[in-house]
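Thread: S-adenosylmethionine complex, take 2
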Amino acid sequence: MPVDFAAVQSYLESLVPDRHPELQKMEVYADETDFPILGPASCQFCYLLTKLHGARRVFEMGSGYGYSTAWFARAVDENGGGIVHHTVWDQTLSDMAKEHLTRLGYPERGSGGRTEIAYTMGEAVQALRETPGTFDVVFNDIDKKAYPDTIDLVYERLKPGGLFITDNVVWSGRVADPSNQDESTTAIRTFTKALSQSDRWECTVVPIRDGLLVAVKR
Ligand SMILES: C[S@@+](CC[C@H](N)C(=O)[O-])C[C@H]1O[C@@H](n2cnc3c(N)ncnc32)[C@H](O)[C@@H]1O
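Output below.
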């Protein structure tokens, strides 16, 4: 019997515990506008990884209006507090994120909160390059064509043992179709292969929703 992957994904989402009303509002907005947020099952997984890692410094590349940011912030907060960097190249999305995340109890950097959010409106890889310090977790959800350009920079900026988590590495199954040679699909394959075959990283792909690649810096 062929597997109904959409039904499996809905089932997995149904297992995620009830969310804060603000997060629920963000989920409804994504449904109504077709905005590609990670969704609750993938975010629950990212939250757990970040929490188990004890992470206090997270850098997110390609943050949209802050849905995935909120889950990283929750993990950081439960680890004792710290900073989550939100980056997106769209001012409206950055402003929306600020409103949602403030209502969730994560103020902007410099407000004296236990867990704060640093906002950069601009290109995410450039933002990481220009942000000082190292990170426990870097999350990657930018334009897929640019995935291969992130590897060396993220390696440099992660602490040893740090996590590099990347969304969409299954790309609705297109990565497994050799006849598909479009630019995004090819870039995702190049990126995933480079990380998986490198002796600088320990990797696994988790086929939850659209596929998360989890890479640990050796
Ligand atoms: C897939 S959505 C992000 C969803 C978000 N991670 C979530 O789950 O809530 C990616 C967002 O990042 C933006 N983006 C894509 N590539 C980017 C880049 N290189 N720099 C900054 N923003 C980027 C897109 O315009 C979009 O708003």
